[in-house]
């Protein structure tokens, strides 16, 4: 399922397509795979459809147990059960990725409840209209000028917001609408039954209010039907290009699916059902159906209904005649329909008098629709199978359920030579890479010799295409300390006074952060404690800062000005290490930025290109960011190897050094580590003297512990005491 809700056969999915993940995110495909197999595959029947997978392909599943109540017919225990029983197996259920071959009948697979960004949608009609010689437009409207007299047609608003009114028009058009367009003009038309005159008259009002277009209602002379038509080429082109031409090609606009506000999307759904929906009034059991010949529309509707907690089966009909299009029926039934009239007020349904609803085929929570597996069987297969890679979530959604994509872990990184640390020998946590709850992609820092970093980046450009590789922009903001100094300088306040005031601003929650000027001047001490905890340094600094400002009118004026500038972007730069690598030219994906720099060798000026989106936004839209770090230590190690070779004639293999050399640990215990990577700071030297490391694992612990959190919490002191047997080692859980 693509992000728009459209269904695409996996063998036709291409790199760069945006697909729906198990979290409901819309992310790009990075790679596609095709394999030849000769084995048994797993065929899963679920939601009225069949899904075929290799046995080891993982799906997000809830493995179930049978109901323990003896008086109940055989069924599964699930969270929505209202029966009383002491033992509730569902409380132990855990959603997890399992191989398809481990699935069994009555387990549940999941379909994501994709959320809208709620940004709202505004359509620019100019994007959807052919720019002919007669077309005229300005910032507010579009119209045609025709003939030698330059007669103007009615002006159509250029920008139209997706709101209740447009949602109703789109619902009617997708279900009942058609367009006729030629060189002379265009028509938007709708067909209704004779008893639906209320709908026809509503359309007349809506078109006038939204598009400033008048229409007419015509009664059929041969059938009990009505026709509504509007003569407007601009609106005809807009609706055709936005929602598709002909019934089998109709679709809900992607912008509406991704960004439409929920209240307007509900109106759209209700008005779709007004056109091609059956309200179930003659059914003996609770069920309603939406019929369409558009496969895309059927699955888009399923996706949007799931957003509001409704599950629909999509039933593919048989062609009754060769020249007829296939019909897709989107069917909803059961207890969920008790919420329908409250949710979709524009299409009220009539429910039968029914006390018992058999709804054990699915249930719903805030994140997913859980759909029951009807059957699982092995089927022999010889041929091609397909898979794709999706960043971040490492998953994609089929027409019915969420599937894991092709992925790897830290052991693969070691086997490929990406890292030289054996994860098995050092008992590293694979869960860092394989944890399905991880939001971001595995972060592998790649360090290079500082002298050769530019060569590496140039290699990447040649390997993946110069148009596909770029550096990344950074937006440097005015922080509270710097903005105080800048404003004071501009106002002629002595540097010594400005510097004394700026130095009172303490560090924030993380290293390198600072309290904002608003926090320094306006927040109460209780508010600061709620955010930063017990920080005497902050309380003392804030009191002194306010005293200094309140006693000096020039500083008070400077701070008032500085508060308005605090946090604003000051200038741009390039990320020190970040490089983005894309599957297609970046100019097709993101805006770019260029600046002139002098070549280090030729001294000639050249343009260096970077993305205008910063690192965070690039990751949000699914692009791959690599950190190519130029590390001085690697350059120094290279120089040392060469010096040893020149002086002693020996080649040193850094990867085969003895990790247990006692002379090395004696040096570390002494704290004489100036020039030793990550161990040279004064605080780290003091910690080494206290801890007295005597094995490699101690060095791993030192690097992990020397962080603000463990240092402030007292964990470092506790670890040192436990290392020397001065404090008992206790575990919170036996499993540890």
Topology:
Elements: E1 18-20, E2 26-28, E3 31-46, E4 49-54, E5 58-62, E6 96-99, E7 108-112, E8 122-124, E9 135-137, E10 141-146, E11 151-152, E12 156-157, E13 159-161, H1 164-176, E14 177-182, E15 185-193, H2 197-211, E16 215-219, E17 225-231, H3 233-243, H4 254-259, H5 262-276, E18 277-278, E19 287-292, H6 295-307, E20 313-316, E21 328-333, H7 340-343, E22 362-364, E23 368-389, E24 395-397, E25 402-404, H8 410-415, H9 431-434, E26 446-449, H10 453-464, E27 469-477, H11 480-491, H12 495-502, H13 517-521, H14 525-532, H15 536-550, H16 553-565, E28 569-581, E29 592-598, E30 605-611, H17 615-620, E31 624-631, H18 632-648, H19 662-670, H20 682-691, H21 696-705, H22 708-713, H23 715-723
Parallel strand pairs: 26-31, 27-30
Antiparallel strand pairs: 1-2, 3-4, 3-23, 5-6, 5-7, 7-23, 8-13, 9-10, 10-11, 10-12, 14-15, 15-17, 16-17, 18-19, 19-21, 20-21, 22-23, 24-25, 27-28, 28-31, 29-30
